[in-house]
Amino acid sequence: MKKTILILAIAVSFSSIAISQEGKPFVKVFANYNSSMEEDYAEFEIKRTYLGYSYKFADGFSAKVTLDVGKNSGGSQYTAFLKTASLNYKASDQLSLDLGMIGTKNFKFMEKAWGKRYIEKSALDKYKWANSADAGISGTFKISDMISIDAQMVNGEGYKNTQSDGLFRTGAGVTIKLNDKISGRLFIDNVPSSIDSVIYDQQTITTGAIVYKNSNYILGAEMSSMENQNNIISDIKRELVSLYGSMNMGNYTFFVRRDIMSTDDEGINEISTIQSGDGMFQIMGVERQITKGLKMSINMQTSQAETLEDAPEAEEIGTFYVNLEYKF
Q1: What φ, ψ does residue 187 adopt, rounded to 5°?
Q2: Per-residue pLDDT of the chain (328 residues; tens, 9 = 90+)
Q3: Residues 6+ positions from 129 with CB-CB distance below 8 Å
Q4: Domains in the chain, number
Q5: Distances (CA, A) of 281 to 34, 136, 157, 191
Q6: How far apart are alpha carbons 92 and 90 in whole angstroms?
Q7: How many CA atoms lie within 13 A of 25 on its CB side?
Q8: How far apart, in whole angstroms, are the C-alpha atoms of residue 135 and residue 154?
Q9: What is the C-alpha to C-alpha distance for residues 33 and 44, in angstroms, rounded to an integer?
Q10: Is 158 left (phi over 0), alpha (psi -120 to 50) or beta?
Q11: Cα–Cα distance between 228 and 206 in angstroms, integer?
Q12: What is the DSSP string of 25-52?
């Protein structure tokens, strides 16, 4: 009850600020009903609530604060975290800088192409290969209408934790817009090792993505490769592939997505290796924009763990969902 009152008080405070100044408060909620196909279990769930406020200063400066209300590792379903507290400086039409608790650039391109965050996170976010926000600095430079480059330096612990090792997670990317329909992106993310040893080195994640869009459908593909997982030098690579597509048919959009995560041992012995999380995840469903600020989707989500070649296949687990996103 106390947490509910606190959240309401925060929302009222944002509204009061908006009345007294020129700014923009915003609220976004992800809710769902889900029912397991294998077990006798169903629930209504408020998955995420975002409360925020943005404000534009003069001379190209703007600021944005967002609170993320959701589950934490301690078990509470409705704990508020500071998701973003960023200061943006648009130095010119080509250069933009962000400072503070900022949204990271690891998977924003893919998340925008997927476009259904209220149903499920994009692949790198879902499997925790990168953080959606972190404390640090980033910049984007538009070379031309076709090419832009960006870079970031962040603590590396994400927005729910403070700096722990004094080292910074860095990344750089390039986005290419071939035309109005086709665009692609390459991003390299580096996590330094806090241990000085011959068996430890920086972890590197390389992600490539391509998206095709027109008025009726979207097709997207991304592939990520992780080397030296957890900073341990190894011939083992983890690979993550995500394919997605959607087709607009009048008032409804039909969509499908498939993620595949696997482990590849490039050593001399080429031993078959499976790690936790390896396997397949798939979503198939339909979405409708009910009215401005309100979306609804009916979908089926299935997953299947990978098994060794000589082992029986794992059971495919399915869950039926009705998802809602409402924002104002």
Answers
A1: -140, 135
A2: 444 444 445 555 555 544 445 789 999 999 999 999 999 999 999 999 999 999 999 999 999 999 999 876 655 678 899 999 999 999 999 999 999 999 999 999 999 999 999 999 999 999 999 999 999 999 999 999 999 999 999 999 999 888 888 899 999 999 999 999 999 999 999 999 988 888 899 999 999 999 999 989 999 999 999 999 988 888 889 999 999 999 999 999 999 999 999 998 776 455 567 888 899 999 999 999 999 999 999 999 999 999 887 788 899 999 999 999 999 9
A3: 106, 123, 205, 224, 226, 240
A4: 1
A5: 16, 32, 26, 26
A6: 6
A7: 14
A8: 5
A9: 4
A10: left
A11: 12
A12: EEEEEEEEEEEESSSS-EEEEEEEEEEE
Are the C-beta atoms of 113 and 218 separated by less than 8 Å?
yes
Give the N- to C-terminal CA distance of the chain in Å, as an integer: 24
> CB pairs under 8 A, 24+ apart, for 56-60?
56/22, 56/23, 60/89, 60/90, 60/91
Can you give the CATH number for the domain in which 299 is found?
2.40.160.10
Contact, 267 vs 238, CB < 8 A? Answer: no
Give the structural domain span for 80: 2-327
- Name the residue type at position 77: Q
- Output the six-digit token pair for 312: 């029986």
Distance, CA of 96 to CA of 295 (rounded, Å): 31
Amino acid at 239: E
Please name the residue that has the structure tokens 């409804």.
252
Strand 61-70 with 147-154, pairing:
unpaired
